[in-house]
Amino acid sequence: MAAASASSSSPSLIDTLFQRSLDDLIRVLRSSSSAALEAAAIARALDEIRREIRSPDLDTKVVALQKLTYLASLHHFDMSWAAFHALELLPSTSLPQPRAAYLAASLSFHPSSTDLLPLATHQLRKHLAPSPSNSPAVAAPALHLLALASSPDLARHLAPDLLPILSNQSSNPLRPKAVATALRVLAVCPDTAPVLFKPLVECLSLSSDPRAVSAAIGAFCELALAAPDPSPYLPLAPEFYRLLVDSRNNWVTIKVLKIFARLAPLEPRVAARIVDPVCQLLRRFTAKSLVFECIRTVFSSLLDHDAAVRLAVDKIKEFLASDDDPNLRYLGLQALNMLGPAHSWAVEDSREVVIQSLNDTDTNIRREALRLIMGMLCDSNVVDICNMLIKYAIKSDPEFANEILDEVLATCGRNVYELIVDFDWYVSLLGEMVRNPHFAKGDEIERQLVDVGLRVRDARPELIRVARNLLIDPALLGNPFLCKVLSAAAWVSGEYVEFSRNPLELVEALLQPRTNLLPPFVRAVYVQAVFKILAYSFISFIEQIQAGESLAIGNSLNQRGGKQEGSDLVAAKSSSDQNNAFEIGDGVATADKAILFDSIEKQETFKHESISCLLNLIETVVGPLSECGEVEVQERARNVLGLILIIRGTQFWNIEEGHELTRDNKITKMVELMESAFSEELGPVSTNAQKRVSVPEGLILNENLSELLDILGDDDINPCASVSFSLRNHHSTETNQDSATAIEPNSLLAEHRKRHGLYYLPMDKDKSESNDYPCANEPLLPVSHGEDTEDIVKLPAQSLIPEKAKPTKPRPVVIRLDEGDGVSSSNLSTAKESKDDMLSGAIRDVLLRNEKKPSSTHKTSSDRTSQRRENDGSENSELISQQKESNSFGDREHGKSSSRKSRHHHKERIESSGQNRDNEEKSHRHSAKSSHHHRRHKHRQRGDAPLDIVPQSPVIQDFLL
Amino acid sequence: MGIRFVLLVNKQGQTRLAQYYAEHLTLDERRALEGEIVRKCLARTDQQCSFVEHRNYKIVYRRYASLFFLVGVDNDENELAILEFIHLFVETMDRHFGNVCELDIMFHLEKAHFMLEEMVMNGCIVETSKSNILMPIQLMDKAS
């Protein structure tokens, strides 16, 4: 020994004699007061370990390995370099050495990072072999290592070695461990199912050691939970049932319940059979873990059995009432979350507790309560609950306040605001959220403000009121979280200025001094909004004068008849006409009235002085911005100043009487231009718009575009050039250029659309529409009214709290475009299923074969199964394709309905819920069909198999019936 | 996979025992995970529940004196049963060491691992009897 260590270069005898033990190392680490000292100590220790571990003396080596294991496990140091040394210690006959080696290996080995794993195969096999020289003390860690670090190869090679332990009938302490290891081997290498599955099933039998049963039930629970389709485990239901009724071990009962929760939806008879035992358990047992599992089982799989649900809900109430145990309160809320809206009565029962839980000290409990409340939202209670939550958010801490806002925004915005009936309320709620002192959800509110504006025409008057309130408050300008919201508000104020009661006030708000606190990109939106409002005010003013003119004419005409009302009528009519210029295709009588009212008011506001005052204000504030360093702001500021210059250039200043005005061609022309620039409405764009455009033949999208210049004619390029030119230089040559900028994008767009109509959304998406923007209510005025009344009649019946469902006004039309999200996700899931199916397919084979030929040799059976797996594979693919078909069918239906949705939403909502139910039923039927399919397949197989086989599938039927 | 990992962490956030099942993590991933979990769980008070959602699984934890026992489990695992498991682990160690404390686990990390090995295999709980768990260790102690 001494000679050996002398001949090997590094580890000297001194090292061996004075080696520091693991305890020494721990003491040193504990005594090092600072992180730097500790790091130094560790570095020194690692140096020592590197030297010592190469020692030929196994005792020295094992201590070094122990120290390394300690450092690697608790201080995250790499020990993959020592893998070989761990393997070296495995064959040692002194018990502590292989155990230390196994511990090191099980903490550091993994097939993905350890190349030396195949070297361990032989030693593992030796330790697993049932011989008197092997104590369980080495077999147990060998199993542990196999369970933690088995590669597919290792699993395949060692699976037969697990068999003797697995099928050992005596109460061998290794048997439960072998069961757990077999589970891992099956997961890594499904090919081993023919070998391992039968002994696993045998472990469930009555004669087995209770520990083996417990481990086996755990293994089956994992298998059944992981399988995408647990139907292969249905034949084992009688065994599981026996355990459910007989077992006195809570752990086993919990696992059995988990398995049944998975099996019950597949087979109604199983559900019917287990209801009673589950209720018994619920009534009789006090162990909370078991009671909770029963509740979960009922809520997930036995919802059809009312008595069980009621019992479980009663238990939940006990959970929720336990003031001293936050765990039970949390779990109670979580379990309630499993109930769908169909059982909202359960939540309603515990309503007070749930709402109180929003105030809990534990964020997790609060979050769970919030999730629960949001899950209960429907269109009849959304107003009350959201109002309550928003008020609540003001009082709660910043983090949770924003979580509430997040949830409310997400739930209300879900599926294009499907829950919202009263958009006026929702828009003002958005405004209220901003007032929350902890508000930090600017991005989402910004999106929704603009989105509601685009989609819901009837919400615009309220929207602009909310925008005004936000813009006018100087206190909001300094808050960095709000600038996104203000940007949206500014955009809304510019885009829908025609609904504003006082545009001048808006301009003042947009130009207030504190706006210089805003970031440039928001400022740019502000300036652009000013531009739109200015254009609108000027047009209104001019048209008002023209209207006055026609009023004068009307007066002169009617003077003879002496009818004063007649003149009013004409005036009203002309002003409503004028407003129709902005309201393309507005057909709703009520909306018309509102606009009329507005316009009458506005006639008061647009006076000569007010316009000139407006111009002065804009000039003073926007003037300095034309020198602004930010291009966006600067450019838009110059646009505004350019418009003012044009307006000042006209003669309207000097005109007292309207009749001369009409002869000023310049003004009429300008008004026309400005009108056409802003009258076009913006609509939402489908996320799939681009995808839907089919690539025309002969167009290669990846082609190099350098040749484009040759292909395009001059006339295509010129307009672009003039646009950019005018943008840059309008300050010097404003008069014509500026109006050109205003009009050109539109005409260009129209022209472009004419030439390349292919690349735009189809103009006639709905047959009834002439416009690419779906109009509000117009085409179906009489029809939709009929439906509205129907809807109101139905509302109270549907609602959660009937007395609160007031007959609200009809839900305004919300424009929605079809979404393609569902398709991709369903594809994903099918792909996953096909991958996961390998194991359950293999297991199904084994189960069927077991039942047929309990005593067949491995060789022939594996051949057979491989054949059968081929069959199965084809069957699986058939199944998947079926599923795909049904998915695509659903999608198609969805698509159809969504195109209808834009026209009459009310009916659609009812229909769609019904349709969902249909789909669900369909899927149920489908799953039922598919399970039948399996069974039929089994029958067929039995028919193929020799005759001496006992028919198997009746076992479960006899048992259950 | 049932149990994904078992972690013992002291009040200062230092790891005292770490055993991962099934899921393989690199050293950096482990360091990050343990850091995140410690930050999430150690800040919680006694009045708060013992379950924390983390990434795509749950952490069930319980504090005994200066040590936190943290167990990562799949979402469908029964939280209360895991709490019982933690308690069983602590009781087992207590029976072996007698009034177990952090130092016992530090200086006998190997034994703590052996006990855990007896109780949990591949993320499944395979043994729940204290005497059965401790038998192999006692045999080994006698032999040495």
From TrEMBL, chain A:
It comes from the Eukaryota. GO terms for biological process: Golgi to vacuole transport; protein targeting to vacuole. Residues 874-889 have a biased composition (Polar residues). It is found in: Endomembrane system; Golgi apparatus. Residues 846-872 have a biased composition (Basic and acidic residues). Keywords: Golgi apparatus, Membrane, Protein transport, Repeat, Transport. Adaptor protein complex 3 (AP-3) is a heterotetramer. Belongs to the adaptor complexes large subunit family. Part of the AP-3 complex, an adaptor-related complex which seems to be clathrin-associated. The complex is associated with the Golgi region as well as more peripheral structures. It facilitates the budding of vesicles from the Golgi membrane and may be directly involved in trafficking to the vacuole. It also function in maintaining the identity of lytic vacuoles and in regulating the transition between storage and lytic vacuoles. This is AP-3 complex subunit delta. It comes from Musa acuminata subsp. malaccensis.
Automatic annotation (TrEMBL), chain B:
One of its GO terms (biological process) is intracellular protein transport. CDD domains: AP4_sigma (cd14832). It is found in: Endomembrane system. The keyword Protein transport applies. Pfam families: Clat_adaptor_s (PF01217). Residues 3-143 form the AP complex mu/sigma subunit domain. It comes from the Eukaryota. InterPro entries: AP_complex_ssu, AP_mu_sigma_su, Longin-like_dom_sf. Its main location: membrane. Keywords: Membrane, Protein transport, Transport. GO terms for cellular component: cytoplasm; endomembrane system. Gene3D superfamilies: 3.30.450.60. Belongs to the adaptor complexes small subunit family. This is AP complex subunit sigma. The lineage of its organism: Eukaryota, Viridiplantae, Streptophyta, Embryophyta, Tracheophyta.
